[in-house]
Design goal:
The protein has 85 residues and is mostly helical. It has helices at 2-8, 27-38, 42-73. The longest helix has 32 residues, at 42-73.
Length: 85
């Protein structure tokens, strides 16, 4: 039952085109998933997934909010000459 769900959710072909039952992951993600399945480097790749999750969930929204705040102040904030830095 578990393997059936695993396959139905596209994990057996994670880096394949979604049109053919995959998830469309990049090739490097497939390498990481394979390494995790093999168990040899599970901790390493688990850490990478956790870092990416943190970045996507915490860093990106904060960066977007800061950018929007700057843009509300006017474009001159983001269009300063290089020498201003």
């Amino acid at each position: 039952e578990v393997f059936r769900q695993y396959g139905e959710n596209g994990w057996t072909a994670a880096a394949r085109d979604p049109e053919y039952g995959g998830q469309g992951f990049p090739h490097m993600a497939r390498i990481a998933l394979k390494a995790m399945d093999d168990g040899g480097e599970r901790d390493f790749y688990t850490g990478k997934v956790m870092q990416a999750t943190y970045y996507a969930g915490i860093t990106l929204p904060l960066t977007r909010a800061r950018t929007e705040t700057c843009l509300r102040q006017g474009r001159e904030v983001v269009e300063m000459p290089e020498g201003a830095f």
